[in-house]
Design brief:
mainly alpha, elongated, 11 helices
Length: 265
Amino acid sequence: MSRTAKILGTVFILFWLLTALAPGLIAPGDPLAVDPAQAFHAPSLAHPMGTDESGRDVFTRVIHGAGDSLYIGLAATALGMGIALVLGTVAALAPRWLDGAILRVLEALYAVPSLLLALLIIAFTGPGVGPAIVAVGLSTAPGYARLVRSQIRSVKNSEMLEAATVLGRGTWLKVQNHLVPNALRPLLALVTLGIGQAVIWAAALSFLGLGTPPPAPEWGAMLSAGRTYLHLAWWLSFFPGLAIVVVAAGATLIGRSLGGKVNAA
C-alpha cells in the first residue's frame, strides 16, 4: 500500500476521532436546534451542508453525530473481540471434544449473515444504542473467535512454545508472555477493519429504525430521515453517507497498512 493511502487513512480517522471527542471545536452550534424558517436551505457559506426539514444545520449534526457512530462501532468491536478472545482461547487450549463442540457452535453462527443475526438479536432486546452495540458485537464475535482459535493453535504448536516448555515455564506464563501476544498481533489489522464494518452495520440498524432513536444526530438515522426528501434536498442523505464512507475507508486503509506490517514481520 502506498504511503499516501496510509497518510489519508490516518488523517481520516484522526479527524473523526477529534470530532467525536470535541465536536464543539468544529461545530459549536446545537445539533438539535430547530428553526423552521431555515428549512431545506441548500449548501451555502452559512450552512456548508445545508439544512434539514426542521431547519437544523446538517454540518453541525454530522459533526456531532460522529460521537454516537464511532462509539457504537468501537464498543461493538470491543465486545465482539472480547467474546472471541474467550471462546477462541478456550477452544484452542481445551480438550478435543470441547474444542469440537465450540467450533460447531461458532460455525453455525458464522453461517448466519452478520446483519441478519444482529436483527434477530434486536428483535428480542428491542431497539436502542445499547442493543445495537450488543447486536453488532455478538454478530461479529463468531468470525473473530474462529480466527483467534486458528492463530492460537498455530502459535501453540510453534518451536517458541516448545522452548518455553523445555525451560520449565508454567502454563500461565506461556499463555501470558508467548501465546496470546504472538497470536493476537496478526489480528490487529482485522480489528481495525472491523471497526469500519461495525460503524456501517450500526448505521444500517439506525437506518432501519433499530439503533439510535431520532432526533439524535446519528449518521444512519440521518440517512433514514433524508431519504424521504431525496427529490427535494439531496444533501440530507449525501453528507451523512459520505461521513460513513470516509470512516470506513480510513479504517480500511489503516487496517491494510497494519496487515502489511504484520506480514512483513
